[in-house]
Amino acid sequence: REKNSSGELRYVVGFRNAYTGHNGEKYLTIYDKDFNIVDTGIHVDNTTYDSHDFVFFDDNHVAIFFSNSKSQVQVPIDKDKTGYVTINAFSASIAELKKVNGEWKEIGRFNMYDYPELLTDEFGIYSETGVLEVHPNTLFIDYDGNYVLNIRNNDSWIKVRRIENSDGTITIGSKTLDYNEAIIGRVGGKYN
């Protein structure tokens, strides 16, 4: 249950479309208080994602927390960066979407694999398997307007910087992929 900017009650539900993709692409549907559809089919423009949580800003603005993958990511093998391993990362991402001229457009994105230091908290021996799986669990906006995300198999909470730019886009993390600028804090995991 959410309220839009006009104070109207909204129910936002994630559905799986069983007819697309390996596991079926997930999408959001927004309902009014009487369960009439306000909008549906809201999804990240990526056929391989698996959404786990979302943030409802308004009828025309949402964020989706989802799994995403990238091969050949260089990850430190420990917190002291004594060495690196190349892995295939099944990681977590955030995409902010806004409805512009009747179409949903991505206005900001954060990919954990762009910040390899975040991937060191995964429990398991990925240096032996060559595969890392980070499971996105929970996403919310804190009192400062930044994202807080929970990564289940890292046993961690991560606070990620979120900036609203003057051109209508959102920077989630850092434009230059600078870890110290992007990550406000981390709690839990193997090394924190």
Please tell me what the overall shape is. elongated
Report the total helices: 2
Rg calculated over all Cα atoms:
17 Å
Beta strand count = 15
Task: Please estimate the helix content.
Answer: under 10%
Secondary structure category: mainly beta
Query: What percentage of the residues does DSSP assign to strands (E)?
Result: over 45%
* Main pleated sheet: 5 strands, mixed
Give me the strand/helix succession: EEEEEEEEHEEEEEEHE
Low-confidence stretches: none
Mean pLDDT: 81
Q: Which assembly state applies to the chains in this document?
A: single chain
Distance between the termini: 34 Å
Task: Note the main attributes of this structure.
192 residues, mainly beta, 2 helices, 15 strands
Write a short abstract of this structure.
This protein has 192 residues and is mainly beta. The protein contains two helices and 15 strands. The two termini are 34 Å apart.
Description:
With 192 residues, the chain is mostly beta strands. It is built from 2 helices and 15 strands. The protein has helices at residues 126-129, 179-182; strands spanning 2-3, 9-17, 25-31, 37-42, 50-58, 61-76, 84-100, 103-111, 131-133, 136-141, 147-151, 156-160, 162-164, 170-172, 183-188. Strands 5, 6, 7, 8 and 9 form a 5-stranded mixed β-sheet that branches. The protein has a 4-stranded antiparallel β-sheet with strand order 1-2-3-4, with no helix packed on it. The chain starts with a strand and ends with a strand. The model has no long low-confidence stretch (mean pLDDT 81).
